[in-house]
# Entry
Amino acid sequence: MRTQRKNWIAIFPNGREVLNLHSPRGLAEYLRRIEEMLERQGGICCLSRFCPLCPGKLLLREACFEHEEGRGASGGHRDDRIWVEGRAQNGAAHYWCNSWKGSKRLSRFPSVMRESSEASSKDV
# Structure
C-alpha cells in the first residue's frame, strides 16, 4: 500500500497521518484537533503532571499540539491522529510545557491521555 497524499493530509500505510500546515484545510484540521484534545482533557494541559512550570488550566489560545511519540527525524515519526484504535493519542499542552518536554518521551504520557479520555467518556 502506498502513502495516500492529498493537498492537506498524507496518510501512510501504517495509518499515521500528517497534516499539511501550509494548506488552509490542513491547518484548520490541525487547530480543530487541538480544540478536540483540549475538550477531551477537560481544559487541563496534558503535561500538567510532568512540567514544573505548568499551571494546569489550559485555555484554547494557549494550546498547542503535543505529539505523544514526538516528531523525530525531521517529522519522520510525526503522527497527527488524536485517536488510534479507540485510544486517545497526543494532547493539547501549553507552548512552554511542550518546549520544556522537548523530544523526551514520557513513559506515563499515554496513561494520562487514557485517563482523561476515560473520564470524558463517563461524562457522556
The two ends are 37 Å apart (CA to CA). Strands lie at 4-5, 9-11, 17-19, 63-66, 83-84, 87-88, 91-94. Residues 119-124 have pLDDT under 50 and may be disordered.
